[in-house]
Design a protein that fits this description.
- This protein has helices spanning 6-20, 25-73, 77-83.
- The protein is an all-alpha fold.
- The chain has a domain at 21-58.
- The longest helix is centred in the middle third of the chain and has 49 residues, at 25-73.
């Protein structure tokens, strides 16, 4: 994970313990957990919005294509004129 091994994580943990003390570490861990969960929730909402917009665009494109194909099935006036030769 980011090139950080087990020893480095232990050293970082000990530094946090020395700097912030044992009473603040549980609160900091809770705050970090809340931040991570809110960030994940925001990212998921953003992804859902993007996929919804993409689906709407696809529906619009497919709707216009199906209308064009229906229009091609019906003869135009120019098609009838070409048969009157």
């Amino acid at each position: 994970m980011f090139g950080v091994g087990g020893q480095e994580i232990v050293i970082i943990g000990l530094l946090f313990l020395v700097i912030f003390g044992p009473s603040k570490l549980p609160q900091m861990a809770r705050d970090l957990g809340r931040f991570v969960s809110e960030a994940r929730r925001s990212i998921d909402e953003f992804k859902d919005e993007l996929t919804a917009l993409e689906d709407e665009e696809d529906d619009k494109k497919n709707g216009s294509r199906s209308r064009r194909s229906q229009d091609k099935d019906q003869p135009d006036e120019t098609d009838e004129d070409s048969y009157d030769l």
